[in-house]
Amino acid sequence: DLVFLPHNWCGSIKMAALQLSAQMQKIKAEINKRTSDSRFFSTTKRGELHELREELNGNDVTKQKNAIKKVIANMTLGRDVSMVYADVVKLSRTSSLELKKLVYLYIMNNSRLQPDKAILAVNTFVTDCQHENPVVRALAIRTMLCIRVEEVLDYTLDPMKKAINDSDAYVRKTAALGVLKLYAAKPKLVEEYGLLDCLKGLLHDSSPMVVSNSVLAINEIQLLAQVNGNGSSVPMLELSNNLINKLLNALPECSEWGQIVILDFVATHYNSFGPKDVEMLLDRVVPRLSHLNHSIVLSSIRVLIKYLEFVTDDQKVSYLKKLGPPIVTLLNSYPELQYIVLRNIMVIIQKYPSLLAKDVKAFFCKYNDPQYVKIEKLTILLKLLNEKNCQMILLELKEYCSEIDVEFVQKSVKAIGFCALKIPSAAELCIDVLVDLIKARHQYLVNDCIIAMKDILRKYPGRFEGVIAVVCENLDAIDSVEAKQSLIWIIGEYAEKIDCPVDLLQLFIDNFEDEPTPVQLQILVATVKVFLKFPEGNDGLLQRMLRLCAEESENPDLRDRAYFYWRLLSNDGMIDKLGDIVLGKKPGLVSNEYNLPRALLEELLCNLNTLASTYHRMPHSFTITKPIPQDDGEDEDEEEEVEIVPIDSEGNELPPTPTSS
Fold first, then answer.
1. What is residue 653's DSSP assignment?
2. What is the distance of C-alpha 305 from the center of its chain?
3. What is the Cα–Cα distance from 203 to 250, expressed in whole angstroms?
4. How far apart are CA 404 and CA 426, in angstroms?
5. How would you classify residue 332: left for phi > 0, otherwise alpha for psi between -120 and 50, otherwise beta?
6. pLDDT at 630
7. 543, 509 in Cβ contact below 8 A?
């Protein structure tokens, strides 16, 4: 027989289940709290250090681990735990790898505060360098080199040489970076003991991991030698064909970090420019373009771009075709990485503008792109602009003008004007787009549209004069300084095409004293132009304008310009020449396209995937130009004053600016 429970019983069971679940979660959280290492950061109690010393000197490995973790936690919180130093050093002979790592961590950090005690652990390090476990041997080498005490570093020479010739690749790769650390601390000691030659021998190692670490160490040592002024004692490594083949063979088996190191090293130091050698190099690097890591792809592009100059024209076209798809694929990433890729692309397309001509749509802005990405994409679109894709790009720019980001909209309007200046056949279409935007009567749109129209009218005099009436109808919507200058220039230049130009100019003259100096200068010039075109009845307007500028203005530029016109008008023989001076033929307007200086461009092409190619500045502006003084351990509390030297976009020092007392 079936038994039916009352409805309230079911509710009681559900409530009990929920309460039980909540209690289980609390118990689980409490267990995790007690078993996690965060419990070691709780406040210390009186006499705890004495208990820690007893646990450290005990025989229970678990208690020793917990004790050393408490010591490290207290050290992290800034408490003095130096009194247990000797007890911790004794534990370095333990067979537990986890405990040994904790002990080494304590010794390494405490030795920076108390270098005199660091010598107590040297015997342990030297002994562990001969341990049967390669992880322990590598750990001992790494820890000794992290203790920047001169007495300890002297004991690292023999273990370092043995580690370089160790049978285990993990120890050898640690030794490769160890030579770099030792050279940074005591360069002469490394050179005298012959560790540099041993390091170069690791380039021929059978392990790709060792090869990549050796490449990095050699490259950094050469940079340190140049900084310290002893670059002559460290000969530049010559990449022979055998060595380059060795590095390229190790490339596919290296880690992502190792591949980047080798590719950048090859791009910097490979000097064999024979056609066959270069072709072999490029063919070996091309497969790296399909890698998932963006940095590896950019480093591969760096190698290809640098050595394309040494192949035939047909081979260059073939390699360039292989570069396009990987570059476009790099844009499918998060915004910060997109920005870096876009900055590198800008460098590349200035050298090879047709490389991405068919991939214009890849640079169209998305609705969720941040502003800095949109602006970079916009700059690249204008760089790729040509007669074939002009209409497509122009329609895309028109869509951008409906965005809510005011700054991006203003740049889009300026880009439309740039299209008209760069592609004459698209000027009429650009004018139509600008007129439509003006009729929308958004204030920030009207200002930039009028500025763009002024440039178009200067570029193509005699054309598009029909838009002048549309511009003058929106006089009330103009509030920016540059837009006012543009409108006043149009009134003075095309006064004969405008109904009642004097009335329009009178509106600006009435507020002359409230306008900034650039607008005042433009009002003065426009008044002279209107007088020369319509002399009858406008002499009073001109005299008023000259009097405002020459007698009431405090600006010297404005006064000089007014006196210049006044004296020309006062001389009967110069009145005819005044028309040629003021209304003469204007110089051609050149499109303000973003272009890097040639010397900077060539340098950046050789340094893609670096800070230089991201900031578009010379590489040496990011490097140290003076040797770092060695710390002698005295006056540790005194802070050294660092002089910051301003530099320009090419990394050159700027002259100091005079300061008022």
1. B
2. 20
3. 10
4. 26
5. beta
6. 46
7. no
Q: What are the φ/ψ torsions at residue 274 (nearest 5 degrees)?
A: -65, 140
Count how many Cα atoms sit within 13 Å of the Cα of residue 192 in the half-sphere of its side chain: 6
CB-CB contact of 555 with 520 (8 Å): yes
Q: How many CA atoms lie less than 13 Å away from 54 in the CB half-sphere? A: 5
Q: Give the predicted TM-score (pTM) of the model.
A: 0.78
DSSP per residue over 454-513, as a string?
Answer: HHHHHHSTTS-GGGHHHHHHTGGG--SHHHHHHHHHHHHHTGGGSSSHHHHHHHHHHTGG
Spatial separation of the C-alpha atoms in residues 417 and 433, rounded to whole Å: 10
- Can you read off the two tokens belonging to residue 232? 């002559």
pLDDT tens per residue across span 457-471? 888 888 888 888 888
Contacts of 125 (CB under 8 A, 6+ apart): 140, 143, 144, 152, 155, 159
Helix (H) or strand (E) holding 228: helix 208-228
**What's the start-to-end Cα distance of the chain, in Å?**
104
Euclidean distance between CA atoms 500 and 15, whole angstroms: 86
Q: How far apart are CA 182 and CA 184, in angstroms?
A: 5
* Lowest-pLDDT choice from 135-144, 417-426, 534-543: 534-543
Q: Which helix (H) or strand (E) holds 26?
A: helix 7-35
What DSSP state is assigned to residue 297?
Answer: H
**Number of other residues whose CB lies within 10 A of the CB of residue 625:** 10
Residue in the block written with tokens 């590095």: 247
Polymer length of the chain? 661
What one-character DSSP code corresponds to residue 79?
A: -
3-state secondary structure of 132: coil
Q: Whole-angstrom Cα distance, residue 625 to residue 607?
A: 18
Question: Which SS3 state, helix, strand or coil, does residue 598 take?
Answer: helix
DSSP secondary structure code for residue 424 in this structure? G
Assign 647 to helix, strand or coil: strand
How far apart, in whole angstroms, are the C-alpha atoms of residue 213 and residue 313? 36
| Burial grade of 541 (CB within 10 A; 0-12, 13-18, 19 or more) | middle
480-501 pLDDT per residue, tens: 899 999 999 998 888 888 888 8
The most distant pair of C-alpha atoms in the chain lies apart, rounded to whole Å, by 128
